[in-house]
């Protein structure tokens, strides 16, 4: 039989980038959490992650770790929440025996919410996907069978299908779809082989029955089998079987492992595997064309190209999802400038905020009116006034001038200076001007 598994979770506070919202559908006020990475591109993909029976949107957001995968790969995530049954448990209406008579339209809710998010956040209407754990995997299956093509591909984890439940189009879907199933051989909540005689939850199908149906529905004739390494040496081996065909882009994957009713096996990062599967079916929108006016200094980087001459340029850029955008750039280049000055003075000066008291070459970088570098160079000569030379004995020549600390210094007004001559004599003078 299909046994009840209760999972207790530590729920995090809502953090930056994720927000809780309400959505009206079928006269019910429904809850969901929306997460968007920083600087998410327009027309980005959208992934739904559905919780299990008794769980919550916030709970599966915590243990699925899908936000981190979204940050790395540039897609938005929605964590919808089911309604509450007579026992106070959150659930998706997939046809459990004890939910007989329940009329909550979860398929309509999820499809309407997906369309709203696509429009409200300018997300891709072609690249919306759904995964879910346990009861959330079961609503994913139902959407694949009975949906209206809002969702592009499906990845149920530890879920199943109840043929006596609410499904209308079981084994008669609207169209073939990509399917990625993950299930444990030792799952004691949803048996791998199913249970057609369960009287509590209701009869449900086995994994191989469901996978074989989607293989045949997609007319897939080839497959690859691989075994993940047992990184933890715990004997919980995960085997991947990927079905494909040269006649279609759709694929059907099955990951089976020796673990139980879990989000994944300890040797794989299942959320990354799920995104790797979804990303195979990301369709690019019509080429996006943008026109920009740019000003720059010396050179400007557009995509991977540097331009140093004013003009109109066209570049094709590729996004994180391998989709192309054409960027037309009207570029104006303002060149960096340089100037050279020569200055002779008889005293210390302040030049561009820099005090100078020694002859030499100096440079400073300023910002011109276009925001570009302006390099100003100065050749400075500080001379001793002729009045000082006339004071001295014409038969002697000044070798150097020092201050009271014995440091060589140029001529300065109103300062005690020592004049050293070539005959070895020393004069102490203060010139007041």
The low-confidence parts are 3-16
- In CATH, the architecture of the largest domain is 3-Layer(aba) Sandwich
- Spatial strand sequence of the major β-sheet: 1-2-4-3-7-8-9-12-11-10
Main sheet summary:
10 strands, mixed
User: What is the total number of structural domains?
Assistant: 4
Percent of residues in helices comes to 10-25%
**N-end to C-end Cα span:** 109 Å
Q: Name the average pLDDT.
A: 85
Measured by DSSP, the beta-strand proportion falls in 35-45%
Overall geometry? elongated
- Counting DSSP E segments of at least 2 residues, the number of strands comes to 25
Q: Class of the largest domain in CATH?
A: Alpha Beta
The number of helical elements comes to 7
Multimeric status of the protein: single chain
CATH level-four homologous superfamily name of the largest domain: Alpha/Beta hydrolase fold, catalytic domain
The computed structural class is alpha/beta
Enter the CATH topology name of the largest domain: Rossmann fold
Instruction: Please compute the radius of gyration using only Cα atoms.
Output: 38 Å
């Amino acid at each position: 039989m299909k046994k009840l598994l209760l999972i207790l979770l530590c729920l995090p506070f809502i953090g930056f980038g994720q927000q809780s919202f309400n959505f009206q559908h079928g006269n019910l006020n429904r809850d969901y959490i929306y997460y968007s990475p920083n600087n998410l591109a327009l027309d980005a993909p959208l992934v739904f992650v559905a919780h299990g029976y008794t769980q919550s949107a916030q709970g599966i957001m915590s243990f699925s770790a899908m936000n981190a995968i979204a940050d790395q790969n540039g897609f938005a995530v929605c964590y919808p929440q089911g309604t509450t049954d007579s026992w106070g448990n959150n659930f998706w209406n997939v046809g459990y025996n004890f939910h007989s008579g329940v009329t909550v339209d979860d398929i309509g809710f999820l499809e309407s919410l997906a369309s709203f998010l696509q429009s409200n956040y300018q997300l891709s209407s072609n690249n919306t996907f759904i995964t879910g754990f346990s009861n959330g995997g079961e609503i994913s299956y139902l959407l694949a069978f009975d949906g209206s093509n809002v969702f592009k591909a499906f990845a149920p984890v530890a879920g199943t299908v109840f043929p006596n439940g609410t499904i209308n189009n079981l084994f008669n879907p609207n169209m073939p779809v990509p399917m990625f199933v993950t299930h444990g051989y030792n799952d004691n909540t949803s048996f791998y082989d199913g249970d057609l005689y369960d009287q509590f939850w209701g009869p449900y199908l086995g994994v191989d029955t469901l996978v074989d149906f989607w293989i045949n529905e997609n007319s897939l004739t080839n497959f690859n089998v691989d075994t993940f390494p047992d990184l933890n040496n715990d004997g919980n081996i995960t085997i991947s079987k990927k079905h494909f065909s040269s006649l279609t882009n759709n694929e059907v994957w099955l990951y089976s492992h020796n673990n139980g009713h879990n989000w994944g096996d300890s040797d794989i990062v299942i959320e990354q595997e799920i995104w790797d599967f979804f990303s195979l079916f990301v369709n690019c929108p019509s080429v996006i064309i943008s026109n920009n006016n740019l000003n720059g200094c010396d050179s400007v980087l557009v995509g991977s190209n540097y331009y140093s001459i004013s003009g109109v340029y066209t570049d094709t850029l590729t996004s994180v999802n391998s989709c192309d955008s054409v960027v037309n750039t009207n570029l104006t280049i303002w060149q960096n400038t340089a100037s050279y000055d020569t200055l002779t003075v008889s005293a210390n000066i302040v030049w561009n905020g820099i005090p100078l008291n020694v002859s030499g070459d100096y440079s400073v970088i300023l910002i011109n009116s276009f925001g570009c570098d302006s390099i100003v160079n100065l050749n400075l000569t500080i001379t001793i006034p002729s009045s000082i030379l006339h004071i001295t004995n014409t038969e002697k020549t000044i070798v150097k001038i020092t201050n009271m600390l014995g440091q060589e210094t140029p001529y300065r007004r109103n300062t005690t200076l020592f004049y050293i001559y070539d005959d070895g004599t020393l004069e102490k003078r203060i010139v007041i001007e």
